[in-house]
Amino acid sequence: MALAAYTPTRVRYDLLLQSMVPGTPFDSARVQALLEARGAKVLPGGGHTWLLEHGSVEIHPLREGGQWVATEVRVPLSDRTELVREVVAKVAEVAKEAEVRFFDPQLGRELSSHSDGAVVDQYERTARYAAEMLGLASAMPISTTEGEGFQPTTKFVLGALGFFTLLYLLVNWMGEQLGG
After folding, report:
1. Contact 117, 34 (CB under 8 A)
2. Of the residues 3, 10, 78, 141, which has the maximum number of CB atoms within 10 A of its CB?
3. Euclidean distance between CA atoms 156 and 34, whole angstroms
4. pTM, whole model, 2 decimals?
5. Cα(159)–Cα(125) distance, integer angstroms
């Protein structure tokens, strides 16, 4: 079995538009029409891209069992929060007009246009985690180290060099003591 090279997907913060009552049909056509009326453009590979004032977001269908159950709004992670604030306000308008539920799966709660503070806090935690744990500096280009010291590998190499230098000097000194 040949293994394909692993390419990580872009790390992002997802928000959902879904039916008001779980288990009932989702009116995807109405949501799509409202998003397109607000400037969302169709992507060649499926979904939409929506260019907002502070950046762009991707919008894709979320399918379960072949059925469209929600619309994902994918916000790229960044060290700036203006885009996510704008997305919360704009998507809340769309949700209200489409009569669908605006939901944040990370917070586990329904959102409104006034929920931007809680969403931004969780967004920043997610971006910081991506930057620190996954090594994605593009997710949050901030310094995640406490000090300006050497990298661990550099410390190890310098320590090994110092140890072997001392060992060399000790062996030479002992050789002179025994031979001379």
Report:
1. no
2. 78
3. 58
4. 0.68
5. 36
